[in-house]
Amino acid sequence: MNLKQWMAFILLAVIWGSSYLWIKIAVGEMGPFTLVAFRLLFGAIFLLAIVLIRRPEFPKQKSIWASMAFVGLVNSAIPFVLISWGEIYIDSAMASILIGAVPLFTLFIAHWTLKDDRMTIAKILGLIIGFVGIIVLMSESLTGGSSQNSLWGQLAMLAAAASYAIGITFTRRRLSDVSHSVQALVSVIFADTFIWVATIGLESPIQLPEAPIVWWAVLILGFLGTGLAYRLFFYLIQSAGATKASMVTYVAPVVGVILGVAFLNEALTWQLILGTILVVGAVLVVNRSVSKKKFETKIRNTVKEIFMDKINIAEKFSQFDTHWDPKLLGELNGQHVKIVKLKGEFVWHQHEHEDELFLVVKGTLLVKFRDKDVELNEGEMLIIPKGVEHLPIAKDEVHLLMFEPVGTVNTGNVTTDERMVVELEQI
Ligand code: NI
């Protein structure tokens, strides 16, 4: 990763990891419902701005709106209130780690409700390690020791983690076709409406905090935690890859522990250290065993929608000077859209399983076949069926756009040519 990506990574880990610190600060002066009501309000404002800029389509079916309301409840309203209430009684470091176990809960719930997530030995091992980690974290209060972390506070965190996991699984099953920003906005508005009603019912007269730091905490939770964090996350996925970006989910809980100990003087016990190692390790084991390709595709689709920006082909061509070195522009229906600059003679080859589409954007390309030659001028295209031997020749530089199935290698059956490119760079 380069410097810019590292900065995004660190900033993201701090935003996510610090949320338990801000909640701990805020619940010292305001009720948990009031805190969540304002946090969601600020989050909704940020998401509304994104929706106004991007103008994605809103779904029409009533059932999808009902699903988004449900997601708002289980993904925001319920866990936010549980975490805020729980943090009145437990340390922010402890909260950070217990919520860090969400992927373990998700795995468990997805196994019972989604057919595509099968248990493997590695996943079962991860679940056992994580369970031991949670027991270690809670051991002091479970045995009635002198812990300052109450059992009820810890159970609230576990209930919040389970609620998140239900939300994640449900979204995957019912809302995978709905625009990410619409889904986030609508569910947050539903969630905030519930919470305002609850706040007025349970915490009125509403007590507003006086210390500026508390307002900062709520603002940071709402704006940065909801909006900026996701932009950073998707920027990282797009520029550094999903595998590297997802590392931040292991780092964030650890950042939460460090911040709690450093700024709020929370106790760094051996149970906390060992529990952190076990839970983070378990999440790592579980995620590693999820099919990497499936994970990458899922993430890529989300990114595609968020970055649904137009592509200027001429501008993309200006970004590189190498010849016979295809660059990836995008992907659709299992096909890669690539551009490449050609100069000189390539190598006779054929593709056993893939048809290829050539569209000349600039210059004149000669494609030799065993029985004829075809000259392609600017704006002309050709589809070469699988199994047909061909030799592209560019007397002067040619800019070419291609459609080929994912995994097509430029040199086809010829694997000895030094111009063979297997891993494409996305630009
Ligand atoms: Ni070819």
Any overview of this molecule?
The protein starts with a helix and ends with a strand. Helix 2 packs across helix 9 (212-240). Helices cover 59% and strands 12% of the residues. The model has no long low-confidence stretch (mean pLDDT 85). It has 2 domains: 3-306, no CATH class; 313-426, Jelly Rolls (Sandwich), CATH 2.60.120.10. The chain is elongated and about 85 Å long. The longest helix has 29 residues, at 212-240. Strands 1, 2, 3, 4, 5, 6, 7 and 8 form an 8-stranded mixed β-sheet that branches. The chain is α+β, with helices and mostly antiparallel strands and 427 residues long. The protein binds nickel (II) ion (NI).
Helix-strand sequence: HHHHHHHHHHHHHHEEEEEEEE
For the termini, the CA-CA separation is 16 Å
Number of helices: 14
Low-confidence stretches: none
How many β-strand runs?
8
User: Rg to the nearest angstrom?
Assistant: 26 Å
Helix content: 55-70%
Proportion of strand residues? 5-15%
Shape: elongated
Number of domains as seen in the coordinates? 2
Largest beta-sheet details: 8 strands, mixed
Question: Which structural category do the helix and sheet elements fall into?
Answer: alpha+beta
| Ligand species | nickel (II) ion
Mean pLDDT: 85
